[in-house]
Amino acid sequence: MCSMDGKMMDGITQVYADAWLLAVDKPAGLLVHGDGTGARTLTDLVREATGIACAQAVQRLDSETTGLVLFSLDKEVQPALDAAVASGAVRKRYIALVAGRLAGGERTIDAAIGRDRHDARRMRVSKTGKHAATIVRPLARYGNATLVELELLTGRRHQIRVHMASIGHPVVGDALYQGPASKGGLMLHALEERLVHPVTSEELLLRTAWPPRFADAPVPAGHEWSILMP
């Protein structure tokens, strides 16, 4: 087992830590894994700050997406976590501010996603792509935008951004998918995650703080996020 002999760096909030797992709140503008450019990544910062060279992110977030990222701190635990993610046993929920007034009621967007042949930066809904499904739950409306909670049933690149754009409600601040401009940047945040601990078998519910850039779209009065968990 690797040992933790350091503390998290300034600017990165630790959400949870034990001998096997670490969860942090990723800021915007930081890649989780390297992209070949040599830019410092969240993984680099976590390894340096904890002194754990084998720390490995279980999932990835887009550079401009903020929120919860789970790390394995033990090589022996990594396969179990990877299998849990692949099987859908790890449940992750996001919040987003999307353009337009989205109708109430839960819906599932089930639309395959593939690469955009005309723009290497983008993905798109494609019949020849990989299966992708996203649960969307509108929470509140703010002018001509809607605060939504989203749950991924699959984990495709740009999945939330592509799916919301495909139904005419792109994420606010998402210039790549024609979302309206936002002073707060991309209005997409990984808020919470539920999983069974691979070693202790404890059921974990990990949650970040409400992101400051969503200050104008607060949690609706009387709304408790735990109520949304089955």
- The secondary structure category is mainly beta
Relative helix content: 10-25%
Order of helical and strand elements = EEHEEHEEEEEEHEE
Beta content comes to: 25-35%
CATH class: Alpha Beta
What's the number of extended β-strand segments?
12
Q: Helical stretch count?
A: 3
Count of structural domains = 1
Average of the residue pLDDT scores:
87
**CATH topological fold name:** Pseudouridine synthase
Identify low-pLDDT runs: 1-6, 223-230
CATH superfamily: Pseudouridine synthase
Shape: globular
Second-tier CATH architecture: 2-Layer Sandwich
Intertermini distance = 33 Å
Radius of gyration: 18 Å
Largest β-sheet summary: 10 strands, mixed
Question: What report would you give on this structure?
Answer:
The chain is mainly beta and 230 residues long. It has a single domain, classed as Pseudouridine synthase. It has helices at residues 42-50, 78-87, 159-166; strands at 13-17, 21-26, 56-57, 66-72, 91-99, 107-110, 113-115, 123-125, 133-142, 145-152, 188-196, 203-207. The strands form 2 sheets. Strands 1, 2, 3, 4, 5, 6, 9, 10, 11 and 12 form a 10-stranded mixed beta sheet that branches. The chain has a two-stranded antiparallel sheet with strand order 7-8. The protein is globular, with a radius of gyration of 18 Å. 33% of the residues are buried. Mean pLDDT is 87; it is low at 1-6 and 223-230.
Write a short abstract of this structure.
With 230 residues, the chain is mainly beta. The protein has three helices and twelve strands; from the N terminus they run ββαββαββββββαββ.
